[in-house]
Design a protein that fits this description.
Number of domains of chain A: 1
Mean pLDDT of chain B: 91
Strand content of chain B: 35-45%
Order of helices and strands of chain A: EEEHEEHEEHHEHEHEEEH
Number of strands of chain B: 25
Strand content of chain A: 25-35%
Number of domains of chain B: 1
Structural class of chain B: alpha/beta
Oligomer: heterodimer
Mean pLDDT of chain A: 93
Radius of gyration of chain A: 18 Å
Radius of gyration of chain B: 22 Å
Largest interface: A-B, 33 and 27 residues
CATH topology of chain A: Rossmann fold
Structural class of chain A: alpha/beta
Shape of chain B: globular
CATH architecture of chain A: 3-Layer(aba) Sandwich
Low-confidence stretches of chain A: none
Number of strands of chain A: 12
Number of helices of chain B: 13
Distance between the termini of chain B: 24 Å
């Protein structure tokens, strides 16, 4: 792990007056797959939100360095442009803007280049195909009236189109049936293959991990990483739960 | 891509806010007196009945009180308003090349001649108090469609028709500013569509108020005869001054049996404008009025287009959007009176307030005792973009029969920080993200607008959203 893509040092984060993350450290190398596991309320999602610069979360101390740049106080759109993507646990519904136009806007913002509509549509259709999504979803308003599974697929679709250097997947498998988990996993594999991008997978279950090779696993309890290990740690948690770390 | 966007914005910023020197203008004195009204009458070469009508309206104006239920219009002093301004060289032509250079340039910049060539069946262009251009395509005129200024129509073949309809829907007794309109009206358009004639492409009148401290009082009278169809577009704008300007136009629409009239407006008045405008439609049996109303400009607006459904099965549809920014208090909405059986009305409005702006949606739906089997649906949605802005909803319903189906839905909300964060997390800057949410919010209204107006509305939203951060 000579070249860290993301380096978080001594991160303290609070929401309103609740101190959630207490001096968290983590380092992710290029192309690595990391998993953050932990019981409910441990601060897993807070970590993702803090990395993305959500203004609701206040970073009280510590630093986040991505690809050589300090992004601790950076605006969310700038963080995205530097190459971090986060799949939301509860993607927002935005009426009046189609999924297709939204993704086109986002891709153009991130690359700084305008795309011809036809070229864009071809790429989008191909990505939708990977996720077995009907291309007519492109015409629908962003997440409006989407089922839970459709919303998660739409998130992975954005991941495939934006090709970030690091993708944070926040509980992407929660609430999905077996088939949907399989489709989403297929999308994530596709992203890995196409871009060799790194992954930070936040989860409290392990279904989504089955088809991925995990480099590092971190156990997060009460806002601190209490244990870091390789992929086999996932299996251990699967068998014994978090009890021994609480 | 970034560069291209900011260029669009630059062009837009100057789109409405440019002014011409008044060197060639002929202005009456400020204020409102019998002498001034008589002078206007002479200027306009009124028929005798019209002169009488003006003076009678002035009397009513002096009797009526300023409305006390809406936004304050204390900053408007009629003694400082010039009610009549025209170019010295006062003539209306059918060829843009004959329009005085600076005025022609104004309309060029507003894109009117180009729109006329591309997508309109006829255009009227008013500059201050008088029309400078009026033209209708030959093939439309050949169908018997009349589209002209009101003044010359007062003497022609349609003189009696005008006398019969002029200020009969909106009488000077209606309110103080209707009386003012009756006294000093000038300019506007007259349209007559004969029975069964469908005008396939729209007619458009554009009203530009250039003169500082002046008022514009155009009168639009449209009669769509039995079974006919017309789409009429009205545009308005003005440059910004540091004194009050006034717009008190009147729009009277007569929709015949089984006829349809679509009336689209985008108001882009400057933010020193008092827009006290009155619009009304009377719809006969089986006829339909479709209002599309975009209110973006003005300092204060009072605007409630009214539909009187007077024949069995008459329908009205009102689609409106209002955007109030800093220093604006826009009181808009609509009125519907169901006074025949099986009539229906559908109201769908959106309002957006930002930077301390205030939007009030005010509606009145009356279903009379005889209007059995009628349906009314009112839906209004408001979006506030910050905590300094205001949004109010005042819907009134007066239902006098049990046999009616009435629905009402109101939603007021703030722009969601979570949605903004979500869009930003995909690389979209904050102001763009907010503009997207606002455009999306108004999408089902902008879809109703003619294409170039929809584009214009989106540009306006973007323009308004710029600099909304911090």
């Amino acid at each position: 792990m000579s070249e860290a893509l993301l380096r978080i040092q001594d991160l303290n984060v609070s929401v309103e007056d609740n101190h959630i993350l207490h001096g968290l450290n983590i380092e992710i190398g290029k192309g690595e797959t990391h998993v953050i596991m932990g019981p409910n309320g441990a601060g897993k999602s807070t970590l993702g939100q803090a990395i993305m610069g959500n203004p609701r979360y206040s970073i009280d101390s510590g630093s986040i360095v991505f690809d050589g740049a300090d992004i601790t106080a950076e605006a969310t759109d700038k963080i995205a442009k530097k190459g971090i993507f986060m799949s939301f646990q509860n993607p927002l519904e935005v009426p009046g803007i189609s999924l297709r136009n939204f993704i086109k806007n986002a891709v153009e913002e991130c690359t700084g280049e305008r795309m011809r509509l036809w070229d864009f549509k071809k790429k989008l259709d191909a990505a939708m195909n990977v996720l077995s999504m009907d291309t007519e979803y492109g015409d629908r308003d962003l997440n409006v009236g989407f089922s839970g599974g459709e919303k998660k697929k739409a998130e992975i679709l954005q991941l495939l189109m934006l090709k970030p250097k690091l993708a944070i997947l926040d509980e992407t498998d929660s609430g999905l049936d077996v088939d949907a988990v399989r489709t989403v996993s297929k999308g994530i594999e596709h992203y890995r293959k196409e871009t060799d991008g790194a992954l930070l997978i936040i989860t409290h279950s392990t279904r989504i991990l089955e088809s991925l090779s995990v480099d590092r696993t971190h156990i997060l309890v009460d806002g601190k990483i209490v244990k870091t290990g390789d992929g086999s740690l996932v299996d251990e948690i699967n068998e014994n739960g978090y009890e021994k770390y609480l | 891509m970034k560069k291209e966007k900011s260029e669009v914005q630059d062009i837009d910023r100057s789109l409405y806010d440019f002014k011409n020197e008044d060197a060639d203008a002929y202005r009456l004195k400020e204020g409102l007196t019998e002498e001034i009204v008589s002078q206007i009458s002479v200027e306009k070469n009124d028929p005798a009945w019209m002169k009488k009508f003006r003076l009678e309206s002035l009397k009513i104006y002096n009797e009526l009180e300023v409305p006390n239920w809406g936004p304050s219009i204390e900053g408007l002093d009629i003694d400082n308003i010039v009610t009549y301004v025209r170019n010295r060289d006062n003539k209306m032509v059918k060829d843009w090349d004959e329009v005085p250079e600076d005025i022609k340039d104004t309309f060029e910049r507003l894109g009117i001649p180009e729109a006329e060539r591309k997508s309109l069946a006829g255009v009227g262009a008013q500059y201050d108090s008088e029309l400078v251009y009026h033209n209708i395509k030959d093939e439309v005129a050949a169908q018997g469609v009349v589209y002209s200024d009101l003044e010359s129509a007062l003497y022609g073949e349609y003189a009696d028709m005008i006398k019969e309809h002029f200020m009969r829907l909106i009488t000077p007794r209606d309110h103080k500013f209707a009386a003012l309109h009756g006294a000093v009206w000038s300019g506007g358009s007259f349209v007559y569509v004969p029975p069964g004639v469908s005008v396939e492409i729209p007619l458009q009148s554009y009203f530009r108020l250039n003169a500082k401290g002046a008022g514009q009082f155009e009168h639009t009278l449209i009669i769509v005869d039995e079974g006919a169809y017309l789409h009429f577009i009205e545009g308005c704008s003005a440059p910004k001054y540091n004194v009050a300007n006034l717009h008190a136009g009147a729009v009277e629409l007569f929709v015949g049996k089984n006829a349809t009239l679509r009336y689209s407006t985008i108001e882009n008045w400057s933010k020193n404008m008092y827009n006290l405008n009155t619009k009304r439609a009377k719809v006969e049996a089986g006829g339909k009025i479709e209002w599309i109303s975009g209110s973006f400009g003005s300092h204060i607006s009072y605007l409630y287009p009214m539909s009187i459904l007077s024949g069995e099965g008459a329908r009205s549809e009102f689609t409106g959007i209002t955007f109030a920014g800093a220093g604006q208090n826009l009181d808009t909405g609509c009125k519907v009176v169901h006074s025949a059986p099986d009539t229906s009305s559908y109201v769908n409005t959106k309002s957006i307030s930002k930077g301390g702006g205030a939007c009030t949606f005010r509606s009145s739906v009356v279903i009379n005792r005889n209007a059995k089997g009628s349906k009314a649906s009112v839906s209004c949605e408001s979006l506030m973009l910050d905590s300094m802005s205001r949004s109010d909803t005042i819907p009134a319903m007066d239902i006098r029969t049990k046999d009616a189906d009435v629905g009402h839905e109101a939603k007021i909300g703030r722009i969601s920080d979570d949605a903004v964060f979500y869009l930003m997390s995909r690389g979209i800057p904050e102001d763009e993200a907010k503009a997207m949410i606002v455009s999306g919010f108004s999408d089902n209204v902008s879809k109703e607008l003619p294409l170039e107006y929809a584009v214009e509305m989106n540009n306006l939203i973007r323009l308004e959203m710029k600099g909304s951060i911090g």
